[in-house]
Amino acid sequence: MAIAGVYDPDAPIVLFGGDCREFLATLPAGAARLIVTSPPYNLGKAYERRRALDVYLAEQAEVIADAVRVLAPEGSICWQVGNHVDAGEVFPLDALVYPLFKRHGLRLRNRIVWHFEHGLHCARRFSGRHETILWFTRDAYAFRLDRVRVPQKYPGKRHFKGPNVGRPSCHPLGKNPGDVWSIPNVKHNHVEKTAHPCQFPVELVERLVLALTDPGDLVLDPYMGVGSTAVAAVLHRRRAAGAEIEPRYLSIARDRVVLAAAGRLRTRPMTRPIYVPPAPSPPAGLPRPRHSSRQRSISSCSGPVPTPRS
Questions:
Q1: Which residues of 262-289 are buried (b: 16+ CB within 10 A; e: fewer)?
Q2: pLDDT tens, residue by residue, 57-76
Q3: Radius of gyration, CA atoms only, the chain
Q4: Measured at the alpha carbon of residue 249, what is the angle toward residues 242 and 217, in degrees to the nearest 5?
Q5: DSSP-assigned letter for residue 236
Q6: pLDDT, tens digit, for every residue of 273-303?
Q7: Quick check: 114 and 131 in contact, CB under 8 A?
Q8: What single DSSP character describes residue 44?
Q9: Which of 206, 213, 203, 227 is nearest to 32 (CA)?
Q10: Number of neighbours of residue 61 by Cβ within 10 angstroms
Q11: What does pTM read for this prediction?
């Protein structure tokens, strides 16, 4: 598959090597149906230069202004951020960048919480186990809920009163996934792991791509990293464009997109349940905990526990 290095409206994939502000300046107004990205958090990672928080936010304001310009009239911007931490104090970036979008008249549709189980273990505060996605649109926007429904928790549930008594009360295609998404983050044993230290999972982007775009639409990532957004777009027959300033990550992104287009890139399936480890056995020599009669009764009614999948 041919991958363009500069913006071309006819190219299915554009991967630009350089600053995202340079790349965004080459895109025409209204080009992108979905802009989804995870900018640096100003933590001094290998791919970023730490600076004063006000300077960082001023740079974000520039990029956001450019992103709004290239957003299609009914398009969406999804800005995935965590926290900036300085001298042990936490600064929630979603709260800090929110006004930068509002100044352009955008409307916040959801503040999505991305929950995961693994990360830095803190000693002087609770360990962070979530980040957020701010989903902004203009007044009109596209939202395809049926494409991203998830299995019902109680699929056989029925109305117990009223005119529909006895009829199924659940949507036949599944339920709305809600605004708290439990999706494993990409750590050392994740099937998608690359050299990037803060890579986000493809399935996180897939849900956004499916719900907010149609085949053939352009999906844009200003801070592309190793190309997870572009991969999600390609897997679902969308066009992809992104910018990455670090040559090593750009090379990895290109390789992943080529594999995805050929159907050979390994990713974690959207339908795979979260792995739940078995309860640990007590240390040798200690008795196993005894259940009360009430606990035994509850356990006996709960049915068999399915074997978890990794």
A1: eeebebbebeeeeeeeeeeeeeeeeeee
A2: 999 999 999 999 999 999 99
A3: 22
A4: 20
A5: T
A6: 877 778 776 666 666 656 554 444 333 333 3
A7: yes
A8: -
A9: 213
A10: 15
A11: 0.84
Q: What distance lies between CA 73 and its chain's CA centroid?
A: 23
- CA pair distance 232, 211, nearest whole angstrom: 12
In the chain, where does DSSP find H-type helix?
20-24, 53-70, 93-102, 202-212, 228-235, 247-261, 293-301
Strand (E) or helix (H) holding 218: strand 218-221
**Closest to 67 in 3D by CA, of 35, 99, 43:** 35
Mean pLDDT for 238-252 is 96
In angstroms, the CA 216 to CA 238 distance is 5
The three-state DSSP-derived secondary structure of 149-214 is: CECCCCCCCECCCCCCCCCECCCCCCECCCCEEECCCCCCCCCCCCCCCCCCCHHHHHHHHHHHCC
Q: Tell me how crowded residue 219 is: count the other CB atoms within 10 A of its CB.
A: 26
Return the DSSP state at 291. P
* Domain limits, the chain: 13-110+134-139+182-261
Residue 279: the pLDDT is 78
CB atoms under 10 Å from CB of 42, counted, come to 22
* Mean pLDDT of the region 236-242: 98
In whole angstroms, what is the distance from residue 89 CA to residue 58 CA? 20
pLDDT tens column, 172-190? 999 999 999 999 888 878 8
* E strand or H helix at 240: strand 239-244
For 13-110+134-139+182-261, CATH gives 3.40.50.150
How is residue 201 written in tokens?
Answer: 């999972």
> Can you tell me the distance from the alpha carbon of 220 to that of 69, in angstroms, rounded to the nearest whole number?
13
Dist. CA 203–CA 270, nearest whole Å = 6
